[in-house]
Predict the structure.
Amino acid sequence: MTAAISVKDLRKSFGDFEAVKGVSFEVGTGEVFGFLGPNGAGKTTTINMLCTLTKPTAGHAEVAGFDVVGAKDDVRRHIGLVFQDPTLDGYLSAEQNLRLHAELYGVESKVVKPRMEQVLRMVGLWERRDGQVMTFSGGMRRRLEIARGLMHSPRVLFLDEPTIGLDPQTRASIWDYIRQLQQQEEITIFMTTHYMDEAEFCGRIAIMDGGEIVALDTPEQLKEAVGADRIRIETADDERAIAELGERFELEATVSEGAVSFAVADGEQFVPRLFAELAVPIRSVNLSRPTLDDVFMSHTGSTIRDAEESSAKNRNRAALRAMGGKR
Amino acid sequence: MSTDALIAPPPTVEVRVPPRSWRSEVRAVKIVWRRELIRFQKDRMRIVTSLVQPLLFLFVLGSGLQQLSAASTDGVDLKTFIYPGVLCISVMFTGMFSAASIVWDREFGFLREMMVAPIRRSSIVVGKVLGGATVASLQGLILLALAWAVHVPYSVGLIIGVFALQLLLAFSITAFGVMIAARITQIQSFMGVMQMIVTPMFFISGALFPSGDLPGWLAVLNRLDPITYAVTPMRTLVFNNLDLSSEASHTLNPPITWFGWAVPIALQVFMVFALGMVMLGIAIAEFNAGD
């Protein structure tokens, strides 16, 4: 498997803020590779560098075999992009948007029409090709953007939060297209997301936090590496239960959402012991396998939601400081 | 989705993006240019609204001030006098709006779609400026249709000449606007800045008055104003098509002079063109330096 993307110690600073602090990874051809992390983790900055939109401060990256700094045009010819924010021309029809894209990319005139039909059929918008994009729903627009990103048969498709703000049904169908693409076109897909459940669909995931990759593996391996299952019990006396768990089993438990929760290896074998040895009556028990949330937590020490809130808080604080400075 | 899955997927159409060449650049310029035309065609409201201002100048100001000026215009209708100026103003404001579309494109993200394509930034800028110029001169054609209402007879020379001059002026104004748009990314500020620059330029240019015996300060400003060198050729062109006495022609369309030297019309036209090219160059440089 040759590498579709190879990145070595890539860095980007904005002023004295280092948004990406030296990331390295390789993505194989035909792989679906996910970047997972809270907002502000440096995912979009990394994607922008790989797409030649932002110049790296240091480091080296190749996409489809071309250097993102030295061979910008060659990179651009071989990649498709679907941005987080819409980039369609609302005044034009779906077909006109695709045609414009084909012209900008210099797609051979005689293949424009059949290719357009193929990509529009794939995202289920062939019947709406003459509709003005302004009249499309959010989900339709995102599907059209994906179709457009595919117009020139890119080797690598970059999807920056492709399902953000969409309803579950549209999200599911977008995942259908992604899988279909992987089978039909041998395309490499590089995507960012902060939906944990979606990250599971990726072949491999890099978890990003604070500008660094903190873990990189398949979803299964990542979850396995956490090692522990999570058990939640409802008891008659939570405090006594926590104390006993600490004394007898040397487990660190916390109360969250009205239940005592703790992590333990081989949870299934542990539950019978728990019932036999814990003196506090247990009303209910819930055992769950590690999720990517747990993976994220074990690597960063916070849930993805908390990480987002704290980074938002930091931003607010910085904004307040900036305003204070002006006064 | 399940029903779709049952239908066999259509065969994959392989597409190869060729390496960059001058042909792909020409294609890019053409499509950016055509997009401006398609959008103009779809935006009927814009066509109507941008006609309001020139029509106000022509018919309201023209008819209203006629009572005061009848004595000094040597029998020429004030509307006829203002007409060439109005041909210029309509192009100026439409060109400005065309340039504003680059700011809108940035706001709605479409600029990004163009910026990541494997083409030169200069192709985008050139396409945009040519598109804006074309749209503005098409708009100007509507006003050309009003020549009969201000007693200007039609002739092939007039139509071609006016269209060519409008195209030139629109090109320069759009290039100026795009140059500003490279720096100013918010639509409100952009429109504000453009109004602040273009409106005085229009008033000082002599579009609404003859530039012969102006007070010293205004004469200086008038000669420094690039629009003067678009308005004077336009007026000369329209007046050559009229049957005017030499006094009327001299009062209403005096030659532009620099320290007593009458600047040839050809040089004036060339100056507008050269200025447009310089601003286009700056706009390209600015977009290249971006990100």
Summary: The radius of gyration of chain B is 22 Å. Confidence is low (pLDDT under 50) at residues 1-7 of chain B.
